[in-house]
């Protein structure tokens, strides 16, 4: 589906649908619905308590959808987190195990700002001197990472926000950088332009501030989306023939995670502390159609879609093995946030994957 990491429940109905993975297990996805009369939604992160964050359209008008950040809990459904200072839209991207939420929101003045939501209040995290910022992740220590325009709005730089102060993480010699994830050890991953801005590479910022180029699969570009608490990093990298493949960086190696069946491209978005990886992959050689996937025990498993939808993507997995993402619905006219769930019949599907 690749509708984008940022596409720029009072639950209406829980739809349990089953699809067979490549290895034959029955996978069940729960439709989390939307806010109000909205048509589309995406679930972007989940903590270990099963609390889900993302965004949803709030009205059905295709020319004025007003997406808002949401927090979903099984006990209360989908909660609208609102916006900063009366802005029109917001997107929640990360949540830690304390329930602190981060993302980005428009303000009433039309600016885009990184926010921290806690105790039913949304805080503007400021910028690195420019006019805009976006937050992507928060760890259990409350450290926030993302990107901000620097003074003069000449470039985006990755930032670390802690104790009320936003710190510039710099670049690999190029113009722009982004920080997408931070683990509980304070290690940060993301992407940076290299010198000359011809290429961009996945990067790791160690907790002492050292910045490391993680390299590629022999192609030009790469990007790191997530790091777990053991230091394993996932994302994607170009192959020598310029295809985009999901990768795992560990022990100074760049490991190609491959694709579904005859698919040609894949992306890994998240890895939990058990080493389970989720993302998306094309599943045919003649069409750029993507399905959500799980990599585990040297297998790649197709998580299917909601109903008879065509495409899906998995964005996050917690340490309990719960997966969230988004999928086209049956008629492919909408796409909705989903949460992996137990099937009505049989064992939980993830139990079938254990060693």
Report on this model:
With 355 residues, the chain is mainly β. It has a single domain (16-353), classed as Methylamine Dehydrogenase, Chain H (7 Propeller). It contains no helices and 29 strands.
Based on the model shown, name its key terms.
51% strand; four-stranded antiparallel beta sheet; single chain; disordered C terminus
Query: Helix proportion of residues, in percent?
Result: under 10%
Instruction: Count structural domains.
Output: 1
Write down how many β-strands occur, each being a DSSP E stretch of 2 or more residues: 29
Largest sheet, described in full?
5 strands, antiparallel
User: What class, by secondary structure content?
Assistant: mainly beta
In whole angstroms, the N-to-C terminal distance is: 31 Å
| Amount of beta strand | over 45%
- Count of runs of 4 or more consecutive helical residues: 0
CATH 4th-level superfamily = Peptidase/esterase 'gauge' domain
> Low-confidence spans: pLDDT under 50, at least 5 residues?
1-26, 344-355
Order of helices and strands: EEEEEEEEEEEEEEEEEEEEEEEEEEEEE
CATH top-level class: Mainly Beta
Shape: globular
Estimated radius of gyration: 19 Å
User: Mean pLDDT, nearest integer?
Assistant: 89
At CATH level 3, the topology is Methylamine Dehydrogenase, Chain H
Taking strands numbered 1, 2, ... along the chain, how are they ordered across the largest sheet? 1-2-29-28-27
CATH-level-2 architecture: 7 Propeller
């Amino acid at each position: 589906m690749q509708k984008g990491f940022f596409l720029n429940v009072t639950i209406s109905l829980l739809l349990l649908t089953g699809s067979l993975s490549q290895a034959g297990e029955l996978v069940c996805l729960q439709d989390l619905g939307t806010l109000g009369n909205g048509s589309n939604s995406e679930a972007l992160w989940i903590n270990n308590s099963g609390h889900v964050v993302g965004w949803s359209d709030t009205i059905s008008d295709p020319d004025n959808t007003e997406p808002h950040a949401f927090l979903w809990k099984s006990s209360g459904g989908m909660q609208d987190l609102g916006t900063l200072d009366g802005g029109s839209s917001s997107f929640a991207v990360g949540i830690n195990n304390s329930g602190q939420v981060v993302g980005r929101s428009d303000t009433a003045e039309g600016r885009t700002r990184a926010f921290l939501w806690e105790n039913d209040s949304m805080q503007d995290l400021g910028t690195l001197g420019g006019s805009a910022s976006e937050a992507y992740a928060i760890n259990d220590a409350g450290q926030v990472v993302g990107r901000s325009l620097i003074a003069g709005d000449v470039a985006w730089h990755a930032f670390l926000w802690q104790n009320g102060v936003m710190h510039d993480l710099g670049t690999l010699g190029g113009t722009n950088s982004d920080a997408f994830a931070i683990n509980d050890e304070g290690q940060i991953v993301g992407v940076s332009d290299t010198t000359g801005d011809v290429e961009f590479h996945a990067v790791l910022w160690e907790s002492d501030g050292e910045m490391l180029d993680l390299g590629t699969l022999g192609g030009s570009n790469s990007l790191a989306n997530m790091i777990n608490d053991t230091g394993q990093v996932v994302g994607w990298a170009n192959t020598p023939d310029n295809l985009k493949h999901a990768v795992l960086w560990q022990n100074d190696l760049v490991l190609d995670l491959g694709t579904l069946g005859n698919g040609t491209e894949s992306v890994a978005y998240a890895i939990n502390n058990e080493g389970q990886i989720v993302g998306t992959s094309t599943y045919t050689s003649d069409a750029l159609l993507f399905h959500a996937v799980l990599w585990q025990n040297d297998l790649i498993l197709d998580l299917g879609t909601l109903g008879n939808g065509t495409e899906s993507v998995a964005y996050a997995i917690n340490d309990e093995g719960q997966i969230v993402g988004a999928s086209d619905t049956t008629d492919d006219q909408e796409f909705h946030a989903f949460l992996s769930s137990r099937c009505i019949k049989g064992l939980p599907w993830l139990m079938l994957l254990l060693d």
